[in-house]
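Appendix B, Record 12. Input sequence as logged:
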Amino acid sequence: MGDLESGLTLSRNQSNCNSVSDPGGQIRQDRSGRLTYLLFFLIIVLTPVWSSQAGATGAEEPTQLIVKLKADSPEARSQILSNSDAKIVRSLDSDSRYKLIKAKSPEELRVIKKKLQSESEIEFVEPNVEAHALYSPNDPYYRGGKQWNFEHVNAGKAWNIASKPGRGVIVALLDTGVAYENYGIFRQIPDLSETEFVPGYDFVNFDSHANDDNGHGSHVAGIVAQSTNNAYGAAGLAFKAKVMPVKVLDEYGIGNAFSIAAGIRWAADHGAKVINLSLATSGRSQTVEDAISYAKNRKKVTIVAASGNDGVDRISYPAAYSSVISVGATNKKKVRAGYSQYGKGLDLVAPGGDRTAGILQQTIAMDPVDTARHSFYYMWGTSAAAPHVAAAAAILISKGVTEPSDIVQVLTKTARDLGASGYDTKYGYGLLDIQAALKYRPMSTTWYFAQGRTAN
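Logged structural output:
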């Protein structure tokens, strides 16, 4: 594991939120009679805080470590507990070798970490990295072509081939939750009222109500499966898929590697066939990587992640893991968005928008956040690009292409080449094309269509 960088916690900026009218009259207004257009970075950045000093915003040093035992034996547990200041907080349900331990202070944790690294029954020790949401609100620029992004990926033509796109396929969204139910202070947003949901889990509050108190997760959910053909609002790409909300980030978009790993394993164990990770880390987490490998290799889950919003020649984790489909972002001109991270390992790109044209979906009110209200927002970032690919994977699975390796092959082989001829690090294999993907036959031994079997 490489050196971890410390990062700054960015709080939600609620200023400079502008309201404009909708000249086309096609988008419903919120209760106040206003339609708000916001341009947000839609990337969740998991910034390790394993450093000697707190960040400039006052972020505290961690007092938690993740420890993986070689075997969950009494001897291994005793090696942890023999460190008098260490306390086992919990274990991963699906693999009890992973332990979350806590100390009284960062100083004590550093001592504990050094001791545990030398113990014979311990495979590795790493910080429980913290997660932060990175927002950048701006003035509205986008006025027409409200879902231009769907045209870019040939959604309409794809729906002529798959009229019930994603039908029956469970897509897990590991995010800030989704506004999917009426529960307590939470209200389901209207344009998810006909979307099918399966039970999820909240790894922030540890209950079965994975509601959105941020707005990011519901916007991502809309790209995948906003209620469609309901004479209201916006459409979703795989609108017959089943959405599984898994909340791993709190109201401020903050979470940690342990919760994300737990969420990945939980989703895989509860029937998810696609997992979308519109989040990124500035450092590698072995715990998250192990969870991804478990989901893909043991549960046959296709995992999609955003490449990152820093615009640099380096793919963020978890998108950089080999078991993940790494997705960068393009703008309305089909050019790489300036913020979209690129580099070796980028698989393909999908619409993410930019300052001049964002991605439109309905989510909870965000100006300020109000879980009982809703509106339609234009948002932009690689977090918006990734769910386009997650939705495409769900559509392919619903048509019989179920192996994760086949899905990767189909999506990359049929992507429309952009940039330099052939594969390049700016666009990967090219721009997602769902129609072309549905017409392509992967080179596996056998694969299945919705109404039959075809053997090679």
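The chain has ten helices and 21 strands.
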